[in-house]
Amino acid sequence: MSGRKIFNTIISVIAAVVVLASAYMGLTKPYLARSAGGGGWSNNNSVTQIKRRGYIRIGVYGDLPPYGWVNSQGKRVGFDLRLARELAKELGVKPRFTQLNGNNRVDALNSNKVDMVLANFTKTPERAEVVDFAHPYMKVSTGVVSPKSHPITSEKQLRGKQLILLKGSTGENYFANRPGIKLLRFDSETQQFNAMKNKRGAALADDNSYLYAWIKKNPQYVVGIRSIGPHQFIAPAVKKGNKSLLKWTNKQFDRLTAEGFFKKDYQIELKPYFGKGIVPSDILLK
């Protein structure tokens, strides 16, 4: 074989190798990109995968009675915790709880630290753009609590005064756009209520549903503004695009509603913490 023929043969072999390699990469690259988890949806949190691993990771509050807190025996209890354990039981797995605060609930889902958030999570248009909400189970609006000795009963009375808020809360979202009110923000429920007791603000704004519970334990305060701003809804959330867990959760919520679970949960976990004048229809959707 002449030198030129040998050269042409080698070139042909190299070209064939390049074509095969390109085809291989073209077929496999999309799969690699998906499995690398570069910001796209990962299937690791699907119902099938959760069942396979044997536990579901649920983000909850740890300092918000009566919805989610740690009692004197060191056990996580509350309305959301009872709901979380019921969902895990129906899924046939163990619940694993991660304590969250109002400012890191979305991040916990997006970083795959939890599969679901059940932390008194209010559905808003802004949050719905970055997480997927299941069917709501409670209704809520912002309330304002203040000392009985100096009650705040209207938004006008807040102008020029310091208002205590939780970072990332619906109360913060509402009052951030209201003129003349000085906002003092905190990272946790414990911090903000301690600030109220230490007289660092004239009032505190948060979801009215647990302000009702807080004043029962702290009768020197009053919810002078029971509702301000838009009425909103509390719902579980999963990572954006997790259609498997979202569909399953919605199905379970339909079942739990039909079976009266939420009314039973209210009677056990919420009623003992609310003062007079609060009835299930003030909190529950059905």
Mean pLDDT: 86
Q: In whole angstroms, how far apart are the ends?
A: 88 Å
The percentage of residues in β strands lies in 15-25%
What is the count of β-strands?
14
Largest sheet, order of strands side by side?
A: 7-13-9-12-10-11
Unreliable spans are 17-41
Main β-sheet, in a few words?
6 strands, mixed
Helix-strand blueprint:
Blueprint: H1 3-35, H2 47-53, E1 55-60, E2 63-64, E3 68-70, E4 76-77, H3 79-91, E5 94-99, H4 105-110, E6 116-117, E7 122-123, H5 125-128, E8 131-133, E9 138-147, E10 162-166, H6 170-175, E11 182-186, H7 189-197, E12 203-207, H8 208-217, E13 221-234, E14 237-239, H9 243-259, H10 261-270, H11 280-283
Parallel strand pairs: 1-5, 1-6, 10-11, 10-12
Antiparallel strand pairs: 2-3, 3-4, 6-14, 7-13, 8-14, 9-12, 9-13
